[in-house]
Write a structure and sequence with these properties.
His_Pase_superF_clade-1, single chain, about 200 residues, His_PPase_superfam, PGM_Phosphatase, Histidine phosphatase family protein, Rossmann fold, phosphatase activity, two-stranded antiparallel ribbon
Length: about 200
Amino acid sequence: MRHGEPLRPGTGADPRDPGLSPRGRAQAAAAAARAAAWTGADAVEVLYASPLSRARETAGVVADRLGMDVRIEEGLAEFDRGARYLHYEDGADIWKRYLAGDLTPWGTTLGEFRDRVVASADRFLEAHRGRHVLAVCHGGVINVFANHVLGITHRTQLFPPEYASTSRFRWEGERGWQVLNLNEKAVMATDQAAEPAGAQ
């Protein structure tokens, strides 16, 4: 699950780790209601979150709705961790680097980022095989893992995840990870416009 909309610069938020905007909290609540409706084999059994505030706060809303604890997984942090948070429309030039697969402006590489995210998925599989894990994270994390599952190694973005949307993957033994669906959106009273995954 991608986090809800974060606060914008100039709102008093930590420029390197903003929390959720009021709209982001509403998005998280809608996503939590959707997660609560998953029952039977689809019911959430384990809840993880990236250590970044926008993901932790989203996961907290989900956890409150489900009556669960949130486990923090460092490997789910976005590639921009530690850098000044920048929405796509506020820095389109630097996001062109992201779309080209160049993460060096954020102090990492596509390969390093992918390896970190995949290692987290491997840890989930080892610790919770056969259980339904919900990981609240970021657009870049979701994209790099989806690309890994599909065997795409040269690009960062496969699709633009919407805020508080869910993408599902399943481990199928010898077949490995499979994509079940991408970008399931929790319904709100008013729709949000899709935003590139670079705007994390």
